[in-house]
Structure formats: C-alpha cells, structure tokens
Design goal:
The structure holds two protein chains of two kinds.
Chain A: H1 2-25, E1 35-41, H2 46-60, E2 64-68, H3 72-80, E3 87-90, H4 96-104, E4 109-124, E5 133-134, H5 135-142, E6 166-170, H6 175-184, E7 196-198, H7 201-209, E8 214-219, H8 220-224, E9 230-232, E10 235-236, H9 251-255, E11 263-271, H10 272-275, H11 278-297, H12 305-316, H13 335-338
Parallel strand pairs in A: 1-2, 1-3, 5-10, 6-7, 6-8
Antiparallel strand pairs in A: 3-11, 4-8, 4-9, 4-11
Chain B: H1 5-42, H2 48-51, H3 65-96, H4 101-113, H5 118-132, H6 139-163, H7 167-175, H8 180-208, H9 212-217, E1 222-223, H10 237-245, H11 250-283
Helix pairs in contact in B: 1-11, 3-6, 3-8, 3-10, 5-6, 6-8, 7-8, 8-11, 10-11
Classes of the chains: A alpha/beta, B mainly alpha.
C-alpha cells in the first residue's frame, strides 16, 4: 500500500514536470537574450497597443518581447508611476493625484496622443423619429436632475412618441463615462443614475439592438462592428465653427475635428527612464509610425497625419510632462495643442 | 387499506422524491443549455492552429498557446505547493494539535478563509509576493496566490477525510507497537488518500477558472511568448477569454467560446485523473 501511494504521487509530479518541460523545450534557444517591454493600462487603448506589439514582435523576430496588460487607465498609472511598466495606455490625460505619484517616485513621462476614440450615440434600427440630437437635448436627457423626471421620448422633443425611453451607457468607472458626462453635462461623473450600465459594451449593443425605445452611447469601434444592428444618431453642438448642423461620427468627421464634443484623443505615456533603453525607443517610434494603419484596422480613428509627425518629434526631444496641467479630461482640444 | 399515517408518509415520500428530481433536472438543464450553446459557437474554431498560435488582433489568426501554457504552468506549480502544505497542515491539526481554544480558533479561521472572495487573495498576493518579496508579475506569484486561495479547502478536506477513519484502526496499530507517525503514514493516510485527492483536485478545478486574483496580481492580457522560468510573465485561459468576450469583432466571441471549450476539457481531464486515483487507492484497502 505504501509503495502504491508513493508511486502515485511520484508519477503525478513527474507527469506535471514533463508536461511543463515539453511545452517550453523547443523554444529555449530563441530566448537566449530576450528583452522585455512592459505595457499596461486602459482597455480602450489595448486593441491598438496589441496590434502594434504584434507587428513589432514579428519585425524583431522574437528578440524583443512586448507584454500588454489591462488594469484600466487609473490602475495602469499606479503601476507606471511606481516604475513597474515602461509604457502606460491611457484613455484620458493623467490626473493630478497621478502626476503627484509619478513626481514622488521620480518617474518622468512623455505624453503622446496615438488615436481618436469617438463616442457614438445610438438608437434601435426601428426608431424612425430620431433624426438628430443636439448637445442641449443630450444634456436634458442625461443630467442628474433628469432622474425619474425625464422618462418619455415626448419630453425630449414635442412630436416624438409618448413612450418610455430606455437608456444604456458604459459603467461609471469607465473613461467613456467620464468623458461623456464632462462633454455633455459639463461635469465629470455628473449623470442620472437610472440607466442600464455595463462595463461590457457588447451588452449595450445587445440592449439597444433589441429595444425599439432604447438610447445609448459607447465607443465608436463597437458601432463599426455592429452596423447592421444599430442606428447612429448625428449630433449637433450648435457651434458653427466646427461644422454646421448635425454631424455623424465617421472617420472623416472625427479626424478633422468636426464631430464635437464626443471625440477624444487617447494616449500612451512613455517613461523617460525606459525610453533610454534602445528597445523601448524603437518600440515607441514603431508605434507612432504604424499607428495610422493599425488604429483603423482595429476600429479606431487615426489622428491627422501631421499630428503623428509632431508626436515623433516630441518623443525624439523627450519633452516630458502633460499639456493638460494634470487636470484630467478636457473637451474639444485641438490635437496640435497636445503636441507643443 | 385504511387511510392512516402510513399512506400519508408515503405521499410525503413521493412529494420529496419529485422535488429532489426537479432540483436535479434544473441544474442539468441549465448546464446542458450552456454547454450546447458554447459548443455551437466555438467547436468549429477549435483546431490545431488555434491551440498553437499566439493572440492576435485578427480573430481568425489568434490562438491560445500562451494562455494554455500559462495555465499549465500556474496549475502545475499550484498543485506542487498546495498539496503537501495543505495535507501536512491538515494532518497536524487533526492528529497532533492539542484540542484547545487556540486550535478551535485556527479551525474556525480556516473555515472562514474558504469563503473569502478570491479578489482579496489577489490583493494579498500583490502586496506580499509581487511587491514585498519582489517576485514581480510572474508565474510563481500567480501560483503562490492561487495556493493561498485553495489551501483552506485542501486543509478542510484532509481533516474531514482523516476524521472519517474509524478509531479502532488506530488503536489496532498502537496495540502492535506503532508510533503515531507510523500509524498515520501506514494506516490512516492511505485510507484517507482518496478523499484528500478528490478534495485537492476539486480545489484545483476551482483555481483553474479564477480570473480576478490573477488580474489583481497583474497577469497579462497580451503576451506572445512562453514563460521559460517561473519568474516570467504569463497569462491564463480565463483572462484571454474575458478579453475576447468584450471585444467588438464577432470573430473574438467565437474565439472566446472555443477557449472555454478548451478550459472545460482541461477541467474534465483533471477530474478524470481524480476519479482514476481514487479508484486506484480504494481498491487496495482490505480490512
């Protein structure tokens, strides 16, 4: 009996070690001298960084490894400012508390916009009455005071059906929610609470696609891949300086800055210490050079061409700090402003 | 036959039987609906190239190689750490520790630990293994964190299995002059082993599906190389799945379903090993 037990245990341990050895054996040589670049942060920026990392590793033929984590913009900055990552993905500019944390730990950073993310306002495909919405109307719908008061479509604009409106939006911890409330209501996080919130945008797609009286907003990329299920709403900010009348979000209107105020730049932050390493320097340059094509491929909108040129220059000069004064999101920023 | 307590009891008996049957069927129906749904969505995607490719931005080119290997590494190490630790702690508490207030306190705490949400273990792992011990966001940090998570379960099942062994067996062993250690090793443990193994494998099956604690300690989402030592970064199947589910492209949802099928298969294999080992040990016991 004793023999049997020992043998069983030994066999199990042996099997585990063999399995582990087998899966790694063939690849030992390739790692002889591998260099590691650590990226972490926003889930919004993740698809772009993933695409860049994939292409970069193919080009480097396994000599440089890139890892990308998703801890959210805030979680990413926490790691970044402790020196635990080389590059931080961020869907909003760095906040004062994060600026302070980085300063305390002696981490200097280069702020580089890499793409635009548009927030799309959507309704069900059976919705025939909504032709466009103004920013004022959106504010009327979403502001905190609307809670339990604005409940029907007819309260938004006379003549619209006297039916209940069902609202969908991203979770209150997301960068999209912060940005939407700031751009529409005027204060970050100020919103009514009685709407269906989900951190998973696919849930919002399903919700709006199956409910004729739904209205919701989320990242433009999710509309791009679900065009047949949703109806996009043009937005009028009633400011003729950036395009007259209601404007639909599209590659062109986000890129040229006329789809306002619901488009925002998204960023990577590069640690100055890490940028001194040749592989990180190469990765960031590769990122900025290939961003125009790769952002589009994963459903985002590239910055204007000259902006990438400016970003490359900013990186080469190692210009540190944030142009947002550490104040968080700002709406309607011109991209050239970010790259001074 | 007159109507009496007997027929009433028979009626109660039948009602209970039907209730129990319905309860079983409810669970089975939901489980089969879920499994069938996943199979329809993902079975066509499970292929050799899916198993041997790294993640990619193109759903049709993406695979789960780094996730499978990461899962195997983490589970292998977790088993290696948690089994001896858990079993030894269980033996100590059950066989050696003096029954007193302190032991009782430890017992209660261990039972409570089994119910602590897994994210708490993740934060603990981040504080101790990743930062204080500077093991970084590595395979070993992940494995140690999962070890903490399942230790209470293994300790508890070890103790339950030991408790179930009749005291007369021990007395017989002592009567023949065996020491406590000899009694445990030669008489008690072999008999308790099937129970202990079942508990351990069930605990490991829980650990294999854990996402939250590993995200907390910083397991990665995109990683296109394999860990070559325990100090390397990693990802696991549930994290890869979770990432794919929340992507906008249809193809990623299919990938997620396929990854779930692979995870289910791994769990199934682990459970089969448990059943095999249990039978092997049970056959040998002849009192």
């Amino acid at each position: 009996m004793l023999y049997g037990k020992k043998n069983g245990l030994k066999t199990t341990i042996l099997a585990i070690s063999l399995a582990l050895a087998a899966v790694t054996a063939g690849t030992q040589d390739a790692y002889a001298e591998r260099k590691l670049i650590k990226v972490d942060g926003s889930s919004t920026v993740f698809p772009i960084t993933e695409a860049v990392a994939e292409e970069f590793q193919i080009e480097k033929r396994g000599k440089v490894m890139v890892t990308v984590g998703i801890s959210g913009t805030g979680g990413g900055f926490k790691k970044f400012c402790r020196g635990e990552s080389d590059v931080s993905d961020a869907s909003r500019p760095i906040k004062p508390t994060e600026v302070e944390l980085c300063r305390k730990n002696g981490i200097e950073y280069i702020e580089l916009p890499v793409a635009y993310d548009g927030l799309a306002v959507m309704v069900n495909t059976k919705n025939e009455w909504v032709d466009y919405l103004t920013v004022k109307e959106l504010k009327k719908i979403w502001e905190p005071g609307a809670q339990r008061k604005l409940t029907g479509w007819s309260q938004i604009r006379p003549g619209w059906p006297e039916r209940q409106i069902h609202l969908f939006g991203p979770g209150v911890d997301s960068g999209s929610f912060d940005y939407f409330t700031k751009a529409i209501v005027g204060k970050e996080g100020a919103s009514r609470g009685d709407f269906t919130a989900s951190e998973d945008d696919n849930v919002l797609v399903q919700g709006i696609a199956t409910d004729p009286y739904a209205l919701g907003f989320f990242g433009l990329a999710y509309y791009e891949f679900n065009k047949d299920k949703l109806k996009l709403v043009p937005i009028d900010d009633e400011n003729d300086a950036n395009g007259k009348g209601p404007i639909l979000p599209s590659l062109a209107t986000v890129n040229n800055g006329t789809y306002q105020p619901l488009s925002r730049p998204i960023f990577i932050y590069v640690s100055k210490n890490s940028a001194a390493k040749p592989e990180v320097e190469e990765f960031v340059s590769f990122y900025l050079e290939n961003a125009p094509g790769l952002t589009q491929e994963v459903g985002y909108i590239p910055l204007p061409d000259e902006a990438y040129g400016l970003a490359i220059k900013k990186f080469e000069n190692r210009t540190v700090g944030t142009v947002f004064g550490g104040k968080g999101s700002k709406t309607g920023v011109k991209i050239e402003e970010l790259l001074r | 036959m007159t109507k009496g307590p007997l027929s009433r009891n028979k009626l109660i008996d039948r009602v209970f039987k039907i209730t129990a049957l319905v309860a079983t069927v409810v669970g089975l129906v939901f489980l089969s609906v879920l499994i069938i749904d996943i199979l329809i969505d993902g079975l066509g995607r499970v292929s050799w190239s899916f198993l041997t490719s790294f993640p990619s931005r193109r759903p049709e080119r993406a695979g789960i190689l780094s996730a499978i290997v990461g899962t195997l590494w983490v589970m292998g190490l977790t088993a290696l750490f948690s089994f001896p630790l858990g079993v030894c702690a269980g033996i100590y508490l059950e066989e050696y520790a003096k029954k007193g207030v302190l032991t009782k306190l430890v017992e209660i705490n261990i039972a409570n630990l089994a119910g602590v949400p897994s994210i708490i273990y993740g934060l603990l792992g981040l504080g101790i293994f990743v930062r204080t011990l500077a093991l970084e966001r590595s395979v070993i940090s992940g494995a140690l964190t999962l070890t903490l998570l399942i230790l209470p379960i293994i300790i508890t099942t070890t103790r339950e299995s030991l408790k179930a062994i009749p005291f007369s067996i021990r007395e017989a062993s002592y009567a023949l002059g065996a020491t406590l250690w000899q009694t445990i090793l030669r008489q008690v443990l072999p008999v308790a082993m099937p129970g202990i193994l079942t508990g351990t494998i069930l605990a490991l099956s829980r650990a294999i599906g854990e996402t939250a604690p590993l995200i907390a300690i910083g397991a990665l989402t995109y990683i296109a190389f394999l860990p070559e030592s325990v100090f390397d970064p990693f990802t696991v199947l549930p994290i890869q799945t979770f990432n794919w589910v929340s992507r906008p492209q249809k193809g990623f949802a299919t990938n997620a379903a396929a990854a779930i099928i692979v995870l289910l298969l791994l769990t199934l294999i682990m459970n089969s090993i448990a059943i095999y080992l249990r039978h092997r040990f049970q056959r040998r016991i002849k009192w």
